[in-house]
Amino acid sequence: MEEHSAERLAAIVESSFDAIISKDLSGMIVSWNRAAERMFGYAETEVVGKPIYLIIPDDKRDEEADILRRLKLGERIEPFQTTRRHRDGRIVPISITISPIKSRSGKLVGASSIARDISETRESDRRLRLLMREINHRVKNQYAIVIAVIRQTATRSRSIEEFEKRVRERIMALSHSHDLLSQVDWAGVRLTDLVAHQLQPFEALQPVQISGPEIVLDANAVLNLGMAFHELIMNAMRFGVTDGGSISVTWGLTSEEGGDIFQLVWSEPAVAYADLLAQEEGFGALVLGKLVPSALSGHAKWSFTEGLIVWKLTAPLARIQIGLGSSALL
């Protein structure tokens, strides 16, 4: 029966996904399972009889000495996180549990260590911390935008009803951009999809021509261009687009010495509010003329020629497209 139990115990140790290592009180390795071979790169025949310091980084040698000292004093050692060294020299972060090994008479004869590789856990924790910092940054930016929306809309509204309507429309436009980002885990949104999403309430009234190369926007560009499209669309809906033509949204890329440049052009045949835009009055004009271009490290300008109102945005592609120095989430 005892022999059978010993065989079962040995089988459990060998099949464990955790590295299980035993050592004597002098720190010499006595046993070494297959998981330890995978985790640290040494075969059992290479390490049995060798000091445990073989896998301990130089800065953790005092830690091992303290473990042996505490075991000899009969102290309980709680599980803790530390590092060990692989055969190839890389450092392996582990969670380790230390247990005393005693003889049948109760005498301490060594220690057993159960180690679990926590590299993936640490990487997940690192990504989570980065994500939380990014979310915190995004939320603060959105608070600032919402405050600006409320303040600027309030100063230009003729009634409480108009103020409520315009604020609700603008915050919902931000919400739509957030929805697009959430659908892709904030990994990037195609410019074509953003334009189509923002144009949904308008296309039933007037056709819209869209053209441009495939560009995947980072989160900052999605939120800011989303605001810009909303203001452009709301202006067109409020002042009316003539039946003589349709809205056009086009974009492209040019190369300059400092890098690729993104250019977006919105044009429409209506001219009823050209003077208003030229005077930079209203929150919409503020968004289109200053807030959005500044957020994208670019510039924007209006032109009124040949019966068309044209808004042209120019910005570094690196501030628009995900993966080119953008601040997209990891």
Describe this structure in words.
By secondary structure, the chain is an alpha+beta fold. The protein folds into two domains: 2-117, PAS domain (Beta-Lactamase), CATH 3.30.450; 121-319, 2-Layer Sandwich (Heat Shock Protein 90). The protein is built from ten helices and twelve strands. It has helices at residues 2-15, 34-40, 44-47, 61-72, 119-156, 160-183, 191-203, 219-239, 274-278, 283-295; strands spanning 19-24, 29-32, 80-85, 91-102, 108-117, 189-190, 208-211, 216-217, 247-256, 259-268, 299-305, 308-316. The strands form three sheets. The protein has a five-stranded antiparallel β-sheet with strand order 2-1-5-4-3. The chain has a five-stranded mixed β-sheet with strand order 7-9-10-12-11. A hairpin with a 2-residue loop joins β9 (247-256) and β10 (259-268). α5 (119-156) runs antiparallel to α6 and α8 packs antiparallel against α10. The longest helix has 38 residues, at 119-156.
CATH level-two architecture of the largest domain: 2-Layer Sandwich
Number of strands: 12
Residue fraction in strands? 15-25%
Number of helices: 10
The helix/strand class is alpha+beta
Mean pLDDT figure: 81
Our count of domains comes out at 2
Quick one: CATH class of the largest domain? Alpha Beta
Helix and strand element order: HEEHHHEEEHHEHEEHEEHHEE
General shape: elongated
Major sheet, described briefly?
A: 5 strands, antiparallel
* Low-pLDDT residue intervals, each spanning 5 or more residues: 324-330
List the strand order in the largest sheet: 2-1-5-4-3
The CATH topology of the largest domain is given as Heat Shock Protein 90
